[in-house]
Amino acid sequence: MPAQSERLHFSERWLNAYERYRYRRHIHAFRLGLAIVFSTLLAKVFHLQHGEWIGMTVFVVLGMLQFQGAIYSKAVERMLGTAIGLGVGLAVLWLNQHYLQDGVFFYLIIGAASAVAGWSAVGKNGYVAMLAGLTMCMLIGDGSHHWLDSGLMRAMNVLIGAVIAIAAAKLLPLRSTLMWRFMLADNLTDCAKMIAEISNGKRMTRERLEQNMMKMRKINARMVKSRSHLAATSGESHISSNMMEAMQHAHRKIVTTTELLLTTAAKLRAPTLNESEIRLLDRHFNQLQRELRLTVRLIKGHYARRIRIDTSLNTELSKPAARLHYDWQGFLWLSTNMRNEIAALVILLQRSRNKWLDKKRVTAPQRTPSPRYRSGATISRLKNTNSK
Q1: What is the rounded CA–CA span in Å between residue 178 and residue 174?
Q2: 217-231, 271-285, 363-377, range with the lowest pLDDT
């Protein structure tokens, strides 16, 4: 039973989508090392001519790419470019052996083929054209009399290397959809923590503000990085690019609003609020944190049912906001606008849920919840300390 429990724990840990996201660099390094060892052993055991091309191809295809979609595209481009270059190179060598005899036309053909490859390399699918030209040059530069056998062996080794890279990509697979999902989830989690920092009743000193701004820079960097996964996520999950852009737009608005709330909070004057207004603000900011955490749980797959963000609280805030100083009006408008953006994001996520959620609904492991801070009543105390 203990051994079975350990196996179950290992399976839950490393087959879990969120764990693959957290340890993606470790997984990538492990897969690449394993693929190179296998490639080297394959070349040595079978004494393959030009066997180094297997490992070289694995590194080219897998080296800087972590995600399945990009790896498959790179492997296909590698195989296609090699096949085209091999065909052109062998044709030129055949013509040279039978007709051209290293004459002027031999070099003119090489120059023309290289020019075509260079023209195509700076356009769409340029990697294919570049590899075709490279393969052609390597074949033509081979001075041996066994150029046909040598060329065919190199092509075969490239194909073997591409297949190994694709197989390695399927080992603990990393998909752009997972990266995009969990980067979004991590950012919303950190935004909820930042809202708690803004409204926890502690004085926003310069030191605290600088520390929180450092955290915001990490959030912004993660948001920028998540954008690079939009196209691949759209292709993997078959979500339209317009919907992906709409979700990224809501993501950006939430992050930007959080940063504006942070920089504005320390500059606000102490408001004059009655007890009911303090309770309303308290409910508003606590509800905002809860809505962010609820959206995170939706993204991680914890909710099978649909959720709805209630924006009616925004209307209640409009009355006390109307008589406050314009700085406070802007501060409350930002926070209510964040709720609208969260609601819009939740609608888009639920519309496309069946496309971005794992088929087996693998969820992230439960963590110990972070401390939650009360806000409304402490906001008044916060502004009083900031005004001193």
Answers
A1: 7
A2: 363-377
Please state the φ and ψ torsions of residue 308, each to the nearest 5 degrees.
-140, 135
Instruction: Give yes or no for a contact between 359 and 236, defined as CB atoms under 8 angstroms apart.
Output: no
Of 129-143, 201-215, 280-294, 365-379, the poorest mean pLDDT is in 365-379
What residue type is assigned to position 152 of the chain?
Answer: L
Q: Residue 301's pLDDT band (boundaries 50, 70, 90)?
A: confident
The pair of structure tokens assigned to 68 is 């399945």
DSSP string, 174-236: --HHHHHHHHHHHHHHHHHHHHHHHTSSS---HHHHHHHHHHHHHHHHHHHHHHTTHHHHHHH
Share of the chain above pLDDT 70, in %: 85
Distance, C-alpha 385 to centroid of its chain: 41
Residue keyed to tokens 């091309």 = 53
pLDDT digit string (tens) for 318-365? 777 777 777 788 888 899 999 999 999 999 999 999 999 875 544 444
Q: Exposed, middle or buried, 112 (CB in 10 Å: 0-12/13-18/19+)? A: exposed
- Reading the block at residue 204, the tokens are 């926003």
Contact in structure between 251 and 220 (CB atoms under 8 Å): no
Tell which wins on pLDDT, 268 or 77.
77
Instruction: Calculate Rg over the CA atoms of the chain.
Output: 29
- C-alpha count within 13 angstroms, C-beta hemisphere, residue 353: 20
| Phi-psi region at 102: left, alpha or beta (left = phi > 0; alpha = psi -120 to 50) | left
Q: How far is CA 179 from the centre of its chain?
A: 4
Nearest to 357 by CA among 228, 250, 242, 236: 236
Q: How far apart are CA 314 and CA 337, in angstroms?
A: 8
pLDDT at 55: 93
